[in-house]
Design a protein that fits this description.
Layout: E1 8-11, E2 21-30, H1 33-48, E3 51-59, H2 76-83, E4 88-90, E5 101-107, E6 111-114, E7 124-126, E8 132-136, E9 142-151, E10 154-155, H3 157-167, E11 180-182, E12 185-186, E13 190-200, E14 208-217, H4 223-242, H5 258-266, H6 277-285, H7 291-295, H8 299-303, H9 310-341
Helix pairs in contact: 1-4
Amino acid sequence: MEKIQKITYQELTKERINDFETSFVIEPLMRGYANTMGTVIRRTLLSSITSIAPFAIKINNVQHEFETIVGIREDVINLIANIRQIHFTYKPELFAKENLAKISFKSNKEGIIQASDIQEINGLEIINKDQYICTIAKGGSLEFDLFLREGRGFIDFEENKSIIEMYGPKLESKIKVGQFLAIDSDFSPIMLCNFIKEDLNTASPKEVERLKITIKTNGTIDAKSAMKEAAEIIVAHFKIIGNVDELESLKVFEENQKKQEKVAMVSIPIERLNLTIRSLNALKRSKYNTVDELLKLTEEELSNIKNLGKKSIEDIAEKLRNWKEKHQDQNQENESNLGEGE
């Protein structure tokens, strides 16, 4: 099998907004691979990342979704639409046994009700606590039981009706008057996902490309974790097709090329140095994001970085020395192997 030039994968720190909105690049890719990989990754991100969402609700004294509730500004349809916008992080073990969780809410407090007014249960956390739910008038009240499950993609309320029937008596509620109402479930935590293909100008006679992927999540999962989960789903499918137990057994990429080692060094983020959080934050605030950028600094330039104490500077210098020695040894080994091959 002819070897393929080894690729690198990294976050574009200059375009990073936060943990939940950022961009990644994969390069160099053979001609046509950027669009192929971009399409697969994007579709997987949008359709297949696991999360939780409400699928049923029981509201006190409500028999169907077209009713109004005395003392509540919103009708049932708008009330449910607001509740559906609440985003949760969760511990997977909470859903391991029955894939079901319930949140109960009851209030007669006059005024605006937000997600922060809902009492969380152990294993669940509301991310957007400022999400508006409804406004209760004087003398009004609101009581409901909200049922959540784990899933992927989007499931409409018609399909959720059959899921309510499937759970049956497991949907326990102390609300005596009211019906279980099925609601749309949007499990996807990905709010935006785009990709673009860029041609790379290199000395190689082969045309190569770069794939840039931009992701924005709803805050329940960080972008890096979403990319990791998407990759695991894709790889799991192709491992079955290729009947492969370990991907390392497929020697697809070229090895022991000095030029590639240097390129990879440039793109390695400073997080790989295992620095303290304080040192890491100080370096990033001063726009130092890669190992290569730090290696170019003199000791005086390093000591002039704001918010770095003497101990932090000594730690960074030592980590850089160890890193440099390690990669010098690797390069010497690669040169030796190349010489033997010749």
